[in-house]
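Re: the request from the purification team.
They wanted to know what the chain is likely to look like in 3D before they choose a buffer screen. I agreed to run a prediction and write the result into the notebook, where they can find it.
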Amino acid sequence: MIHVIDDSKNEKRDFTFSRSLLVKYMKYFDRCLKKISDNDEIDISIHCDAVIFEWLLNYIFAMEEYEKKQDEQDKFNRAVGNSVKTTWNKNGDKDDKGDKKNNFANSAIMQYGGPKLDIKNAVTILIPAEFLKIDRLVRECLDFIGEHIEDISRVQVDMSCINTNIIREMAKKVSLDRLDNLKERKDKIVSRLFMKKLELLLEKDKNHLYKCAYCNKLFTKKQRKVLSCRRGTNFVDSNG
């Protein structure tokens, strides 16, 4: 039994959830429940928005159905010696469109009754998904946010609690040109994305910055070969 305490609405809701699914999809509980016998009954209390937690559970139920169908398909392919990968919808019919990674979150999972990501809930879903370590959902949220960052930045949602690791992954999804054109009434996320984008760029050796000891100008290792400093001292190298 999982007791969800929604402090903002001052209410409490109970959810019945399989322990195996809990450990399989919410890796946060893996370490917590490892020392508890499978025969023991457990009660877990979580402080979270009840609607968001219900969204997460619906996602996991749909994900489990999707993976079961994929396992059945793989067994069938091995039995008939078929190496061609196909996908199936919830009615057991072949889906000729295949499983495309880019629209996985709002297509394959939705076929099994799963919830939909949109610009209003993507951030509020991402935060608990990252905390509970629902890795696949975190990746899908990041892909969705990266694709719709302009619209999401205009939504009235608190982004201050997004941790630095997630901001870093977001920065990977958004180009510098898009960041430069991103406008916010309040600086909720743009500055943090720029900071992480800069860190990512400076991790590459070709983007390391050096400072001239004479004029204090900055330059990269590649530029060093073609730039000259007027304030620098003259010298003669081994080639004359």
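For the purification team: The longest helix spans residues 50-80.
Please add any questions underneath this entry.
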